[in-house]
Amino acid sequence: MHQETLALHYGYDKQAFGTMSVPVYQTTAYDFGSAETAADRFALRELGPIYTRLNNPTTDVLEARIAALESAEAAIATASGQAAIFYAIANLAEAGDNIIVAKKIYGGATTLLTHTLKRFGIHAKVFESDHADDLEALIDDKTKAIFFESLSNPQIAIPNIEKIVSIAQKHAVVTVCDNTVATPILFQPLLSGIDVSVHSASKYINGQGSAIGGLIVEAKGLNAKLIGNPRYAHFNEPDESYHGLVYASLPFPIFSLRIRLSLIRDIGATLSPYNAWLLIQGLETLALRMKEHSSNAYKVAAFLKAHPKVINVSYPGLESDPLHVRAKRYFKNAQTSGLLSFEVEGLAFAKQILNTTKLFSVVVNIGDSKSIITHPASTTHQQLSKEELEKAGIKEGLIRLSIGLENVDDLIEDLKIALG
Length: 420
Fold this sequence. Notes:
The chain is an alpha/beta fold. It has helices spanning 3-9, 35-42, 57-69, 81-90, 107-116, 135-138, 161-170, 183-186, 222-226, 254-267, 273-305, 324-330, 347-356, 386-391, 408-419; strands spanning 74-78, 98-102, 123-127, 143-149, 174-178, 196-200, 214-218, 312-314, 339-343, 361-362, 372-374, 398-402.
């Protein structure tokens, strides 16, 4: 089936109750019916709901649908996009290990991966994902993951995906790609050889800015990369916290299973059933919205590119953009979402633009149906040092736009007035 159909139907059998809308199973726990069933589920002899911290029927539908949209083996829903990133990395690395992280990623991901995880004993090395020429030299026997974004926020850069994947495969290192901005509609990371994709589902997948949630999606064939791989001994050795369970011995997607049975069990950053339901509603219209977001953003980017007060525009969907060749290679119809950035002269003018727009809301979210304007250096990335900002390509005159679903002529007129 095509993605549009999968997003509407996959993972839900309406025959049980006849409801067209997936029900919200707003419950904490479940009646096992017997002591034997309870014991069998905890021992993995029988699959089924145990406790909503671990699994929930509404959340199961969301996980099944995102896995289908990504042509994946399995998926795990989490409380937020940050939780998804944390779980994905914590599932691979431990104290004494290192991960390799792209320079151009979301500021919150940068601080999580390079600062917070350092306190857990996991060291981050930074590479230039635009070309990845420096990547291979950073890999050693303690490297457990390579993390990057398919479309970076807010630089709107596209990495050299083939090179990153090729190097990772050569050294049997797991790749983790944040696909929040592109979504599975515009780019399918797992079909490009990437092992794990993560999403802040709060963005385009939700589409209304009404729910926080995250998703982790596991590629088909990832078991083969983990089983017997000395980098990931914890998948191949007995887990003392689960009566000596060896994940590699199980006939399941073991990357996702370990997140559910170990990390979500112990840390508990779980998606609520109601938020899972809201995200399911978003998935149903995602394909239509991504097409319209991209179309509107293309027209806004073309307008900004021609404006005399705009120094630079980053939107790979534009034919004149240096990354347009990659956009054509990786992204559906060279569409690159509703996210774009542009640079003006200085902080004062940038803030003046934010304060003058009427239709654009000054908000730090992206992917909403309503258009958003943000100054990354003073908000989403303000926790970075000047040196880190410069390395990440975030200048004081940089403005990020998340183009919504309004009439594009109205958006352009709003920006025209703000630019003066």
